[in-house]
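Batch manifest line 227
LIGAND: zinc ion
JOB: complex structure
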Amino acid sequence: MTTFLEVEVSCAVCESRHKHTRLLSTSSFGPPDLDTRPAPPARLSLALQVQCCPVCGYCAWDITKAPPEAKRVVSRQDYQALLRDSRFPYLARMFLCLARIQEAAGNLSDAGWAALYAAWACDDAGVDFTAAAAWCRKRAIALFVKARAKGQPFLPESGAEEALLADLYRRIGRFDEAEKEIQRGLERVSSDLLRRLLAFQRRLCRARDIEIHRMDEVPEVIPEDDV
Ligand SMILES: [Zn+2]
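JOB STATUS: finished
ARTIFACT:
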């Protein structure tokens, strides 16, 4: 069940007050995609996970809070141009703006997730936004790789970050880089499910498959030549 609440909030950047629909809770029925995207109805509440101030354009998970860098980033011309960039659907622009602020604040894991959510928003917007989705995935990869280099985890389990990066690379057809992440993941993974997931990613990469796949497609048993 998905529940909402209409609340009046004060923007942490410009202090203007306005109404927002807040997501209180949601759930999902069915397996997620390989990149962690949940099944409906949680899948459909993507638009409620980002807020944008209609006055200054500040974008955040919660606009009543802002890192110290937010004001400076929001006032920049390139930020405002991104918020109006029609190459991306509006929802994706909000997530990309959120990513830019979190990156400036040094929260690289958060920034990476926001860029991935932007990619999902592009996927939902149809074939006209295929290039935009690929751009967002490249951005998510860059941010997650940077997060990893700085020792900021973006998924808790050993091998899970590599499985996510492999999926991001695979979806944009960069199979060699996906393969490197799969190898790296297999070297450190401890859970059986993640090991099978990485092996499944390898099979998809070898088949040059760039489509969306779900966790229920991960085989119960890994053929030996996939590991
Ligand atoms: Zn504002």
